[in-house]
Every structure is written in C-alpha cells, then in structure tokens.
Amino acid sequence: MDSEEVQSVVALNPWEFTQKQFMRKPWERASAASAFATMAGFVKMRALMETPAHALEQIAPRFNVDAVETPAFVVDLGLLRSNLEKLAMVQRESGAKVLLALKGFAMFATFPLVRQHLSGCCASGLHEALLAHEEFGREVHVYAPAFKAAEMKRIIPIAGHISFNSLSQWRAHRPVLEAAKALGHAPSPGLRVNPEYSEVAVALYDPCSPGCRLGARAATLEGEDLMGLEGLHFHALCEQDADVLERTLAAVERRFPRLLEQVQWVNMGGGHHITRNGYDVERLVRVVRDFKRRRGKEVYLEPGEAVALNTGYLVASVLDIVGTETTPTAILDISATCHMPDTLEMPYRPHIIGSALPRVHPHTYRLGGLSCLAGDVVNEYSFPRPLEVGQKLVFTDMAHYTMVKTSTFNGVPHPDLDVFDPDTGELRVVRRIGYEAFKRKLS
Fold first, then answer.
1. Burial class for 385, CB neighbours closer than 10 Å (0-12, 13-18, 19+)
2. N or C: more exposed end of the chain, with fewer CB within 10 A?
3. How confident is the model at residue 33 (pLDDT cuts 50, 70, 90)?
4. What is the pLDDT of residues 380-421, one digit of tens each?
5. In 323-437, which ranges are E strands?
6. Nearest residue to 123 (alpha-carbon basis) of 95, 151, 150
C-alpha cells in the first residue's frame, strides 16, 4: 500500500474505510491497516466516526451516578418499560408476535418485566434456548447456521419453532424431529431463506452480502422437496425502518412463492428499529397486517436492539490521565474491546453525557481502555472542564450488544450489572462478576 493510497484511505469517511477494508483479501487488510495506523490515520478515522443519532436523545441518568461502583452497566427499568409498551402496541395493532432476540439483549433479571409485554424469545443456539426456557418461560424460537445432533436432542423438548439454515440441515435433523412428533411434541420446522436483497450499509452486519452463509437462496430450492417445512424465516435488516422491511418482504415474495404457499408461519427477523424516535410504526403495522390478510400466515418479529434501545448506561471512572505528543489520554476502568466491542467492529462513536466532539469544548481527551491492546481506545471527546482522576463518565445506549458481547480478555474486570427502578428510586447490583468467573473460563 503506497503513500498515495494511504492518503486516499485517510480521506475516506469511517464507513467507506470499513467497507474498503472488508472487501480486501485478509493479508491486504492487515497491510493496509498497518500503513493506516503508522500515519496516525487511525486516530483521524476514529475521531470522524459518527455517533448514532438516537444515542444523543437518551435522557441523563435518573439515578445517583455517584452511588454507582464502577465499572457498571445500569439498565433503567422505566425506560425499558416504555420500549416494551410500544412493542406490545405493535403486537396488538399488527397481529404479529414480537420476540426478544437474546443475541442483542439477554439480561434475564429484566425478564419478569419483558415477558409481561412480549410473546417469547428467539435464540441463536442451544445456550440461548436454555436461557429462554429457564428464565423467560414463553415461546422459544431457535435458529443457528448449523446444529449438532446432541444439541438438537436438548432443543427439541423446549422449543416451539426451529429454523434451519439449509435444506441439508433440515434433512439431517428431520428424522429426530419426526420421531419426537410421534411421541407428542416436536418444534415446528422452518427454513431460513436469503432474499438476496439488502439495504444494510455495513458489510460486517449485512446478512445478505455476496457469499453470505446465512439462509438458503432461491436457486438452491428449485426442484427440491420442501414438504414438511412449516415456516419461512428471513433476516435482512439492521437498525432500519419499516420501508426497508416492505421492500425486503416484496423480494421474499418474488423469490420464494412455492415455500410461502405451503408454510404456516413467517418470521421476519430482526433489525427493526421500532422504538427509535421517528420510526414509522404505522407503516410497520400496515405492512404486517396487509401480509397477514393476503397470505393468512402467523407472523413473528424478533427485535433485539429495539427492546433495549436507549435504556442502559455504562458508568466508568477516570483512573489516570497521561500526556502524549498529541492529545492527553484519560485511562478509564472500562475497555472498548472488552465491554463495548461494537465501537471497534462497526465502528461507531458512543455518546458520553456532557461531552462533545473534539475541540468543541476547551478540554479534549482521548479515552483509553484498561486492556493492553494498543487500539483499546474509545474515541476523542471534549469537555467543558478538565477531567479529574476519580471522575465518573456515563456512556449512553449501553444495554444492547454490550453485556451479551463482553469478554474478560487480559483479565480486565467485568462491569457490574445493575438495574434502576425509577418508581422506587432503588439502584440495585444484580450481578458482580469477579475473579472466579474469569478463572473458570480458562480451565
């Protein structure tokens, strides 16, 4: 990668850079990333990353931040209830059943509240299915790119619906399903399809990107025996509105008419940003109701992010402030790579209450994590007053795709899991994850 190409990459916005890197061969990606970093372009890219607009709308904490022992994820049960009430309204008005996607949010301490509003959970394999069965107690839907025979034996007694990723998976596990059905219970089997239509901007999160392994394409079903399949499952959205669902559904209906004709239920997947301000709920209701009227099928939606959107905070403390040749770095007791990996993977710039973009306020800092990874940097932020050791910072929109993706890499302490009930004013530590959990993972 020559200097002219590096300069062109530095000029890209973060999304274009991510896409360009994703399309490279692995060894070219590594070379490009190395050259990019040596020019301090990495810092420029991170500074340019966008903060999702919805994260700026989350209200300031209603709990006493000084009372939080950091680091800690804190979920506001009042904000969660507000999201659930909107999702319950979608169920009533559309006739669809809304499921909690555990891959996005699985804080089971909140399940007593969630199950008052939603119809069940969708799980991405055995462990999530067991969690749904043990802690949620309503409908359990399961999908995975592939299942082992031993997993299937444990899933069948607890699941109501199973979506297979391919006809070969369906055929491999069909005998055990039919045997279970003869004994009185078997999940309703479905097939995940790939509509080969997507409007997702980031390739890493696009379930219909070229060559993607997720879902059967229409060409692979031509001339095949589909008897026995009772459901069709598609997932092609990511943080998108109802207009995208409408266009995606049209593609599904064009590509899979034979399967649609025979099935009893259709799972329209996740990625529906239903609880975001400005989401067109009326259009979603219309699209689902119209589909149900025309097709006569049971419809499922499985949002994950929308359930917990703007309900959680990550509270961190400043441990040290170190000078560099550019911007001073505040070292926090959290880690981007361990506690909010999507900020590095997508990437995006999380919002901090009271902060602004670099150099908007008088005091700009780079915020570094606690691991030894050189790139464990959240981003650069400016503040009205200098940061101080011991000061607490509050990140917004930290309930979804955070707790479910954390790691104990490098032995970095895991944040506490807290809940706040605005009705009572109680701030409660639900789980403290310490050394023993770290140790048990390793042997």
1. exposed
2. C
3. very low
4. 999 999 999 999 999 999 999 999 999 999 999 999 999 999
5. 329-332, 363-368, 377-383, 392-396, 416-421, 426-431
6. 151
